[in-house]
Fold this protein.
Amino acid sequence: MDEAGRAAGALELRHLRCLVAIIDTGSFTDAARELGISQAAVSRTLGALEGVLGVRLLHRTSRLVAPTTVGVQVLARARVLLAGADELVRAATGGHTRLHIGHAWSAFGRHTTEFQRRWHEQHPETELRLVRHNSPTGGLAEGRCDLAVVRAPLDLASWSHALVGYEDRRVALASDDPWARRRGIRLDEVAGRTLAIDRRTGTTTLDLWPEHGRPAVEYTRDIDDWLAAIATGRCVGLTPEATAAQYRREGITYRPLRGADPVPVHLIWRTHDAHPATHTVIALAAELYR
């Protein structure tokens, strides 16, 4: 057997999932948490993958984990292979009798329960599962779902997509913040506060403000981290109303934001691998948002 044959024989899907998790989470510690293994196991698995391929895949420092030039190429192929493997499992175990809809934070917000209820009543032959995945595409690029709900700024050119509605924005505050007693907050007022922004899946960018009038920023990693930072009172957050509907937490108050455009809500899916129920999902979601 030649070298390529030996390498292919030793390559395992767990190696690829480990690489993707490290890049997507940004650290070995967070990758271990996502994969449910120890940090040492993450290091060993990555080392095994680099040994199989005979190349270095990541630049590692105390503050940064980034793919090498070869690592970028391997990562792209890994995503394709993992998505194909997941699709094979879904086809073998359930085919299109299951429908997975991914989301990063809030599914359909206040419409989520009604969407689930109507789906089960009208389409009992297709099992619906909502999948939360902390990535910009809500798990679609990772092969975790058939369609995904996205609100964050995203280049939609890579996906088929449909606009199903809009959501007004809310200001998230610590409940003992003086602003929590008000009926609404203006966008320009927020520029004087520290703003919590989720850099991976959040819907808020500094482009909402003029370049010389932007708030200070504290970056967070996911919805739980974002809410925890806001609850301390050291920062505030801007978010679609869906978050307020799905994440009612003690110590957090939501108030309407004045002076900002609403957030568009899109459904996205793989152009050449659309689930048969795709357009049914779009129609139902759009009806609820109307």
